[in-house]
Design brief:
This protein starts with 5 loop residues before the first helix and ends in a 5-residue tail after the last helix. About 25% of the residues lie in helices and about 20% in strands. Strands 4, 5, 6, 7 and 8 form a 5-stranded antiparallel beta sheet that branches. The protein has helices spanning about 5-15, 25-45, 60-75, 95-100, 100-115, 170-180, 320-325, 350-360; strands at about 25, 80, 90, 145, 185, 200-210, 215-220, 230-235, 280-285, 295-305, 310-315, 335. The protein has about 375 residues and is α+β, with helices and mostly antiparallel strands.
């Protein structure tokens, strides 16, 4: 999760509380943040050459703002949304600041403790925000590592799944699923870092953790072309938020009963035994699975030129495996056949199984 920044959270809260009914555009918030940072530097007597001593980023980016929105919601129950105009942000439930007199005091107290030294234990307020229609009572739902959209209202912002540290993007996706805001992301082909990324819209429907890696399933389409939407699985670690100033995050609905398992090919059991461990080789771009392994039993075999690495993995080819495999394009992770130079063992994939896996990838990112 993002590091706490209570002084900056308070600035965001106060700024949006005092805005008019239309709120502030993201560009206006960027300008106001620069002004706030300049005033803070003068107040603290920090020279411009010592800017690094001033806590907080030098400029406000969308990724940072998403993280602040998540933390303000999780810790104080205050929702920053765009209910009036696209890309114009308001504090949609600012009445909480008046209804709960202790909330303001608590925020001020946390700022004081932050400036004094070590942070105090985070106090999380009961969250009150927009819930799906036809819901009488909130329901917490957690099944097999899923964050599910079915079975009633789900509090996506509630930390789950033990003590494993989650990527910041998981918290952002939970928050966006709660308020129904799609995410504009960047995409560029692996091995082409200088290529200008294309803009895509992700409408997250469900999150799942497999072997410590997080995956999200939902509608994905090229920015401005909703008609081309297709249901896809995406590796959360690969998501890069688009920082372009002109982007607008579309609204969408979380589909009740959405099941990521339905994206697994229906005929996979005709080719694999989910209870039998197999060995396979994966050709992987860069360090995609180095920091967070594809599976617990994973071994680097060799470098394949500058861009790719060959790994050998041992796993059960069950639904979790197919969920992971379908989250990548062939330019990132693809099953590889090395048996013209590596001896095949009894548990290695057959040529028919390799052909089946290679043919699974539909036209996708």
């Amino acid at each position: 999760m993002a590091l706490t920044n209570y002084r900056l959270y308070r600035w965001v809260i106060n700024t949006l509380e005092n805005a008019d009914e239309y709120g502030y555009s993201f560009r206006s918030l960027q300008d106001l943040y620069k002004q706030f940072r300049s005033e803070t530097r003068k107040t603290l007597g920090i020279k411009r050459t010592d800017e690094q001593n001033l806590k907080g980023p030098e400029s406000l980016k969308r990724t940072t703002f998403y993280n602040w929105r998540v933390q303000i919601w999780v810790q104080f129950g205050l929702i920053i949304d765009t209910p009036v105009y696209d890309n114009y942000y308001t504090l949609t439930n600012k009445e909480l600041l008046d209804e709960n007199k202790k909330l303001r005091d608590m925020i001020d107290h946390l700022v004081e403790e932050e400036e004094r030294g070590p942070q105090t234990e985070t106090l999380i307020f009961s969250k009150r925000g927009r819930k799906p229609k036809n819901t009488q009572q909130p329901v917490q739902e957690q099944v097999m590592g899923f964050v599910s959209a079915g079975g009633g209202y789900v509090d996506y912002c509630n930390p789950q799944y033990g003590e494993v540290e989650e990527p910041e993007m998981v918290g952002i996706l939970r928050f966006l699923m709660t308020i129904g805001e799609a995410l504009v992301i960047e995409y560029s082909k692996a091995g082409k870092p200088k290529e200008k990324p294309n803009r895509y819209v992700l409408e997250p429907q469900q999150l799942k953790s497999i072997n410590g890696r997080w995956y999200v399933a939902g509608n994905l389409y090229e920015y401005g072309n909703r008609e081309s939407a297709r249901v896809s699985i995406y590796d959360v670690e690969r998501i890069r938020i688009c920082e372009d100033e002109d982007v607008v995050s579309p609204r969408y609905d979380v589909v009740e009963g959405f099941d990521i398992g339905n994206l697994v090919p229906v005929d996979w059991t005709n080719h694999f035994d989910a209870d039998k461990v197999v060995s396979m080789y994966l050709k992987v771009a860069g360090n995609v699975i180095e920091k967070h392994p594809f599976c617990p039993a994973q071994m680097k075999v060799e470098d394949m030129g500058v861009l790719y690495t060959l790994y050998q993995v041992y796993l059960k080819p069950d639904k979790d495996f197919f969920t992971q495999y379908m989250a990548y394009g062939d330019e990132l992770v693809v099953v590889f056949n090395p048996y013209n130079r590596i001896e095949r063992t009894p548990i290695d994939l057959t040529d028919d199984q390799i052909r089946y896996l290679k043919g699974l990838r539909r036209s996708k990112l």
